[in-house]
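Z., the sequence and structure:
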Amino acid sequence: MRRITRIATVGIASAALALSATACGGKKSSDSSSSSSSSGETSAAIAYDIGGRGDQSFNDAAYEGLAKAEKDLKIKGAQAEPTDGEGEADKVQRLTELARKGNNPVIGVGFAYAPAIKKVAEKFPDTTFGIIDDTSVTAKNIANLVFNEEQGSYLAGVAAAKASKTGTVGFIGGVEVPLIKKFEAGFAQGVKDTNPNAKVLTQYLTQPPNFDGFAKPDLGKAAAEGQLDKGADVIYSAAGLAGSGAIEAVAAKGKWAIGVDSDQYNQAGLSKYKDFILTSVTKDVSDSVYNLIKSVKDGKPESGEVRYGLDKDGVGLADSNPKYKAMADVVAAVEKAKADIIAKKIEVKTAP
């Protein structure tokens, strides 16, 4: 595939997603344009994670925050896409270009940007840099936007255990890294606390440094098919774009899928499968992006760890599917678990 980096000014009219949920991990081409900061207008930028915009999940949630900031705060936004098989130098170049054009803040979507942000933030001390899902790099001009993914995943485990008829559920992780292990840990704990006799099948699509497990739907589809063959009737995927393949496979068998990051029931690219998306573990990536942009515009830029947990609705479980809301026993169990976590009666694990 061609290696193309896209840096484009975003308009509200471009809100329709250009990639389908079952597209490959490659990038589409786009005309490049510089930030509008040269005209004196406030501008902000996001650099997407693996899978890019159109993943119906993590990256798209970040885009929603940028689009909201454009509309509500009257700022200009820029986006930069990842390239296939890129290294740290590519990320450094991308962030440097965005900062040099005057964007502030510049936000790296995903922990993979940590080493690059550490380098670039030092060169642009007057620019605020945001990084989502990482606390390893710190500086006065870096905001670490992080979430209690394990808490939302616990609720998914409760829902899965209650909705399962076979007593076997599945977890699919994109890449076996500490962040995704948090999703696994919370989910498995929620399942077992709800039904100690339940079986949790776990599979990771790739191992680092291979991050294709976040980008290739065919990998998610194959993993889900394997778990379905073993009796799983509810499958939760934390795998970015690859998760769309798992949702496709689950829907084909008429079983339940649980989405991640965004409310995937409402994602246009997944509309043909929505009836089989029981719920989704949501992370308020959108608000985290919007809040950081607003803080910079207001002259009080966020810095250091900014954490979003269940207590502040920073993570949660979507209830868009009417079939989910009709399951009174499932909803009641989830609401009780949510209250117990917030009250610290349940301590959710962050590692399996």
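The chain has a mean pLDDT of 89. The CA atoms of residues 44 and 77 lie 5 Å apart.

Let me know what you think.
H.
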